[in-house]
Protein backbone atom coordinates (compact mmCIF):
# COMPACT_ATOMS: atom_id res chain seq x y z
CA UNK A 1 0.00 0.00 0.00
CA UNK A 2 1.42 3.36 -1.04
CA UNK A 3 1.36 6.55 1.00
CA UNK A 4 2.27 9.79 -0.76
CA UNK A 5 3.27 13.10 0.80
CA UNK A 6 3.52 16.29 -1.21
CA UNK A 7 2.93 20.02 -0.88
CA UNK A 8 -0.87 20.30 -1.14
CA UNK A 9 -0.71 24.05 -1.81
CA UNK A 10 1.83 23.70 -4.63
CA UNK A 11 -0.10 20.74 -6.08
CA UNK A 12 -3.41 22.64 -6.11
CA UNK A 13 -1.87 25.81 -7.58
CA UNK A 14 -0.12 23.73 -10.25
CA UNK A 15 -3.45 22.29 -11.41
CA UNK A 16 -4.96 25.78 -11.48
CA UNK A 17 -2.02 26.84 -13.65
CA UNK A 18 -2.54 23.86 -16.00
CA UNK A 19 -6.21 24.79 -16.42
CA UNK A 20 -5.15 28.38 -17.20
CA UNK A 21 -2.57 27.13 -19.73
CA UNK A 22 -5.06 24.76 -21.41
CA UNK A 23 -7.49 27.63 -22.00
CA UNK A 24 -4.75 29.92 -23.32
CA UNK A 25 -3.29 27.26 -25.63
CA UNK A 26 -6.74 26.67 -27.12
CA UNK A 27 -7.22 30.43 -27.54
CA UNK A 28 -3.78 30.93 -29.14
CA UNK A 29 -4.32 28.05 -31.58
CA UNK A 30 -7.88 29.14 -32.43
CA UNK A 31 -6.75 32.74 -33.04
CA UNK A 32 -3.26 32.06 -34.39
CA UNK A 33 -1.49 35.26 -35.48
CA UNK A 34 1.94 33.97 -36.42
CA UNK A 35 5.12 34.74 -34.49
CA UNK A 36 3.35 36.54 -31.61
CA UNK A 37 1.23 33.46 -30.89
CA UNK A 38 4.27 31.18 -31.17
CA UNK A 39 6.24 33.34 -28.68
CA UNK A 40 3.30 33.27 -26.26
CA UNK A 41 3.10 29.47 -26.60
CA UNK A 42 6.84 29.18 -25.93
CA UNK A 43 6.57 31.30 -22.77
CA UNK A 44 3.64 29.20 -21.52
CA UNK A 45 5.58 26.00 -22.30
CA UNK A 46 8.67 27.10 -20.32
CA UNK A 47 6.60 28.17 -17.32
CA UNK A 48 4.57 24.95 -17.46
CA UNK A 49 7.75 22.85 -17.57
CA UNK A 50 8.96 24.63 -14.42
CA UNK A 51 5.61 24.23 -12.66
CA UNK A 52 5.46 20.52 -13.54
CA UNK A 53 9.03 19.85 -12.38
CA UNK A 54 8.86 21.84 -9.15
CA UNK A 55 5.21 21.60 -8.04
CA UNK A 56 3.55 18.55 -9.61
CA UNK A 57 6.27 15.92 -9.77
CA UNK A 58 8.00 16.07 -6.35
CA UNK A 59 6.59 13.58 -3.86
CA UNK A 60 7.70 11.40 -0.99
CA UNK A 61 6.18 7.93 -1.39
CA UNK A 62 6.15 5.08 1.13
CA UNK A 63 5.93 1.61 -0.39
CA UNK A 64 6.35 -1.89 1.03
CA UNK A 65 9.74 -2.07 -0.69
CA UNK A 66 11.11 1.23 0.57
CA UNK A 67 11.14 5.00 0.37
CA UNK A 68 10.66 6.62 -3.04
CA UNK A 69 11.91 10.20 -3.31
CA UNK A 70 10.61 11.90 -6.46
CA UNK A 71 12.59 15.08 -7.03
CA UNK A 72 12.29 17.31 -10.14
CA UNK A 73 14.68 15.36 -12.38
CA UNK A 74 15.50 12.17 -10.47
CA UNK A 75 13.71 9.34 -8.68
CA UNK A 76 15.47 7.55 -5.84
CA UNK A 77 14.23 4.22 -4.45
CA UNK A 78 15.77 3.55 -1.05
CA UNK A 79 15.07 0.22 0.73
CA UNK A 80 13.97 0.81 4.33
CA UNK A 81 16.82 -1.22 5.84
CA UNK A 82 19.47 0.89 4.07
CA UNK A 83 18.35 4.12 5.79
CA UNK A 84 20.87 5.03 8.51
CA UNK A 85 19.37 8.24 9.90
CA UNK A 86 16.87 11.01 9.19
CA UNK A 87 17.35 14.68 10.00
CA UNK A 88 14.83 17.46 9.40
CA UNK A 89 15.64 21.13 8.86
CA UNK A 90 13.73 22.97 6.13
CA UNK A 91 13.77 19.67 4.21
CA UNK A 92 13.89 15.99 5.16
CA UNK A 93 17.41 14.60 4.78
CA UNK A 94 17.69 10.80 4.59
CA UNK A 95 21.20 9.49 5.33
CA UNK A 96 22.18 6.19 3.69
CA UNK A 97 25.12 4.27 2.29
CA UNK A 98 28.59 5.81 2.45
CA UNK A 99 27.52 9.09 4.06
CA UNK A 100 25.17 9.83 1.17
CA UNK A 101 22.14 12.06 1.71
CA UNK A 102 18.80 12.04 -0.09
CA UNK A 103 17.12 15.44 0.24
CA UNK A 104 13.38 15.15 -0.18
CA UNK A 105 11.60 18.05 -1.86
CA UNK A 106 8.35 17.45 -0.01
CA UNK A 107 7.09 18.01 2.57
CA UNK A 108 9.25 20.98 3.54
CA UNK A 109 8.93 23.12 6.65
CA UNK A 110 9.19 26.88 6.39
CA UNK A 111 10.45 29.08 9.22
CA UNK A 112 6.89 30.31 9.71
CA UNK A 113 5.50 26.78 10.01
CA UNK A 114 8.25 25.82 12.49
CA UNK A 115 7.57 28.91 14.63
CA UNK A 116 3.86 28.06 14.62
CA UNK A 117 4.64 24.49 15.70
CA UNK A 118 6.82 25.77 18.55
CA UNK A 119 4.01 28.04 19.75
CA UNK A 120 1.59 25.14 19.56
CA UNK A 121 3.91 23.04 21.69
CA UNK A 122 4.39 25.69 24.37
CA UNK A 123 2.16 25.39 27.47
CA UNK A 124 -0.76 27.79 27.50
CA UNK A 125 -1.05 30.29 30.28
CA UNK A 126 -4.45 30.63 31.85
CA UNK A 127 -5.79 34.16 31.98
CA UNK A 128 -8.32 35.17 34.59
CA UNK A 129 -9.91 33.06 37.27
CA UNK A 130 -11.89 30.73 35.06
CA UNK A 131 -10.75 28.31 32.36
CA UNK A 132 -12.40 29.35 29.08
CA UNK A 133 -10.49 26.89 26.87
CA UNK A 134 -12.47 23.84 25.67
CA UNK A 135 -11.65 20.59 27.44
CA UNK A 136 -9.97 18.08 25.13
CA UNK A 137 -10.81 14.38 25.14
CA UNK A 138 -8.09 11.88 25.99
CA UNK A 139 -7.45 11.04 22.32
CA UNK A 140 -7.38 14.72 21.33
CA UNK A 141 -4.93 15.47 24.13
CA UNK A 142 -2.70 12.58 23.00
CA UNK A 143 -2.72 13.94 19.43
CA UNK A 144 -1.81 17.44 20.67
CA UNK A 145 1.09 16.03 22.70
CA UNK A 146 2.30 13.89 19.77
CA UNK A 147 2.41 16.89 17.42
CA UNK A 148 3.63 19.41 20.00
CA UNK A 149 6.44 21.45 18.47
CA UNK A 150 6.49 19.36 15.27
CA UNK A 151 5.87 20.34 11.68
CA UNK A 152 4.46 18.03 9.01
CA UNK A 153 8.04 17.43 7.79
CA UNK A 154 9.09 16.37 11.32
CA UNK A 155 6.19 13.91 11.47
CA UNK A 156 7.04 12.39 8.05
CA UNK A 157 10.70 12.17 9.12
CA UNK A 158 9.62 10.22 12.23
CA UNK A 159 7.59 7.83 10.05
CA UNK A 160 10.62 7.18 7.82
CA UNK A 161 12.82 6.56 10.87
CA UNK A 162 10.30 4.13 12.40
CA UNK A 163 9.95 2.14 9.17
CA UNK A 164 13.74 1.93 8.79
CA UNK A 165 14.14 0.66 12.36
CA UNK A 166 11.36 -1.90 11.83
CA UNK A 167 13.07 -3.16 8.66
CA UNK A 168 16.38 -3.57 10.50
CA UNK A 169 14.64 -5.49 13.30
CA UNK A 170 13.29 -7.87 10.64
CA UNK A 171 16.90 -8.30 9.38
CA UNK A 172 16.02 -7.06 5.90
CA UNK A 173 18.90 -6.61 3.48
CA UNK A 174 20.33 -3.09 3.23
CA UNK A 175 20.42 -2.92 -0.55
CA UNK A 176 21.90 0.15 -2.30
CA UNK A 177 19.70 2.97 -3.54
CA UNK A 178 18.38 2.84 -7.10
CA UNK A 179 18.49 6.20 -8.87
CA UNK A 180 16.87 6.91 -12.23
CA UNK A 181 16.28 10.00 -14.32
CA UNK A 182 12.82 11.55 -14.48
CA UNK A 183 12.08 11.07 -18.18
CA UNK A 184 8.69 12.78 -17.90
CA UNK A 185 10.27 16.01 -16.60
CA UNK A 186 12.99 15.80 -19.23
CA UNK A 187 10.39 15.29 -22.00
CA UNK A 188 8.38 18.31 -20.83
CA UNK A 189 11.56 20.42 -20.71
CA UNK A 190 12.66 19.27 -24.18
CA UNK A 191 9.23 20.15 -25.59
CA UNK A 192 9.46 23.61 -24.03
CA UNK A 193 12.95 24.17 -25.45
CA UNK A 194 11.74 23.03 -28.89
CA UNK A 195 8.95 25.61 -28.79
CA UNK A 196 11.40 28.33 -27.73
CA UNK A 197 13.70 27.43 -30.65
CA UNK A 198 10.74 27.41 -33.03
CA UNK A 199 9.64 30.84 -31.78
CA UNK A 200 13.15 32.22 -32.37
CA UNK A 201 13.69 30.64 -35.79
CA UNK A 202 10.24 31.28 -37.34
From TrEMBL:
Domain Low molecular weight protein antigen 6 PH positions: 57-103
Domain of life of the native organism: Bacteria
Protein name: PH domain-containing protein
Keywords associated with the record: Membrane, Transmembrane, Transmembrane helix
Region (Disordered): 114-135
Xref: InterPro entries: CFP-6_PH
Signal peptide: none
Transmembrane segments: 12-30, 36-55, 179-201
Amino acid sequence: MKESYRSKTAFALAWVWLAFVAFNVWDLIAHYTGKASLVALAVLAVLTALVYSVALRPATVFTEEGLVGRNPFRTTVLPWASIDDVTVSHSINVHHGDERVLRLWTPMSSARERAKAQRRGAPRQQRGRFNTEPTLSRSEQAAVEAFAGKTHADWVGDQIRERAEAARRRDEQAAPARISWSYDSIAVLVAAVALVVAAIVV
